[in-house]
Design a protein that fits this description.
single chain; mainly alpha; 76% helix
Length: 83
């Protein structure tokens, strides 16, 4: 089994953490994993929900934007969680 180091620090690390969380908020919003995550990381969960509900990332997708566009759209939230 390969070794694992992490989580990655900084805004990019937060982005990497929020991607699967956003997926689960869409497809299994009341699942066991979501409830566990919310209980362990309430601030990250709150920010991820706010990002999801804002529709900013959906807009990036609709406009066929890049990962850079997605990062730009939510950069302030990413930096607030990485400090």
């Amino acid at each position: 089994m390969p070794g694992r180091h992490g989580p990655l620090a900084g805004p990019i690390g937060v982005f990497a953490e929020l991607l699967p969380l956003s997926f689960n908020m869409t497809w299994t919003p009341h699942g066991r994993w979501m409830r566990l995550h919310e209980s362990l990381f309430p601030e990250r969960h709150r920010v991820a929900r706010a990002i999801s509900e804002s529709g900013r990332l959906a807009t990036v997708v609709a406009e066929r934007g890049s990962v850079t566009d997605a990062l730009h759209a939510i950069w302030d939230e990413l930096t607030s969680l990485s400090s």
